[in-house]
Design a protein that fits this description.
The complex is a heterodimer.
Chain A: H1 2-17, H2 21-27, H3 40-43, E1 46-52, E2 55-60, H4 70-83, E3 89-93, H5 106-115, E4 117-118, H6 122-125, E5 141-145, E6 153-158, E7 164-168
Parallel strand pairs in A: 2-3, 4-7
Antiparallel strand pairs in A: 1-2, 5-6, 6-7
Chain B: H1 3-29, H2 38-66, H3 72-77, H4 97-118, H5 124-152, H6 156-170, H7 181-188, H8 199-212, H9 235-249
Classes of the chains: A alpha/beta, B mainly alpha.
Amino acid sequence: MEIGDDAWRQRTARRAASALPEVWNLLDEISDPEIPVVSLWDLGILQDVRKEGDTLVVTITPTYCGCPAMTEIEQDIERKLRQAGHEPLRIETRLSPPWSTDMMSPEARQALEGYGIAPPCSACTAGGGQPACPNCGSNETRPVSEFGSTACKALWQCDACQEPFDYFKPI
Amino acid sequence: MKDTERKQATLEYAQRLGDDAVVLGHRLSEWCSNAPFLEEDLALANTALDFIGRARMYYSYAAELADDGRDEDDFAYLRDQREYRNLLLLELPRGDFAYSMARQFLADVYNLLFLERLMQSSDERLAAIAAKAIKESRYHLRRSRDWMLRLGDGTEESHARLQRAVDDLWGFTHELFEIDALEQALVEQGVAVDTPALRDAWLEQVEQTLAEATLERPADDWAVKGGREGYHTEHLGHLLTEMQALHRAHPGCEW
């Protein structure tokens, strides 16, 4: 948790201090291939943008070890930046600090909920509560399966409106 | 230990950990479209992905250390069974659902203990992979432990099947806590995990869950080992044949 909080602060600070705000802004236009309402920045995948000599270096981190979207994400970044004339260009994958749902922006949580995915609820992992249903807002929800349609989500159901929903797992 | 020796040993170690991950990941992936119901199908496939992702990280590191033009695919697809150094427990056929869950539980408890130590490794790359993977392993264990309780303390049939699975797997768990000269040397460098030291904690957790699931803890009266030396059960060859067929038919193909 603390690592995540630190990582979020560090990431926000890196962006604020960056001499390349136009690149960050450009990358805001790229969303996660599997959750199109959330940008790479909001999800915490985009970690850093910097220059090494003439080369623009973009650092990203995978959400899960086996996330099959990473290749597509790299290609999306490359396409976007090349179209805008940013060359030479290198994309680096960094594992440390490990991605955590605490790296998500507040905007990402809202967007997930609007999209029908319950945002991660750290208190819920300790067995202390249930995520609220993203459809009707009820807290009378129960887990159906620890895994949902992608590695980052679990499958839950709402007992109030009966709708099944994806829940973004806090890790 | 000279730098070159340490590098060579770390390469071998990363490759072993990659072998463990890819073999278990493949066994889990065999459930895709074969699981008892849809939610479990998704869960098994997602868990498989986690392990295959882990294998890619270990193999990519091994490839960088080797620095001989090989990449992660060469490690996974172009080595034969005698070159594979995975733990035997992980290569056993998937069996029925109870068997796969029992294996997963025994491996998940081990993985958590192992990764906790590997996070402290003096090798930064291995420590980073461990810090990433442990988050997923916590989740895996939650699920596999839950299934142990549900099946063990479930119907007569599910109890009998799970007990049989635990009995059949038990003799393969001793190998998890063996250590050879290569790993011992790396332990002394702070790189590798001292696996014999994990056994007490592993046993305590496993025995507790077995008791809660109303299962008998099998006796320690037989043990099979050899995976770390490249001596495998007859099952690994079949697994590799299937896993490597496409790559060997289209050498160098990437997708």
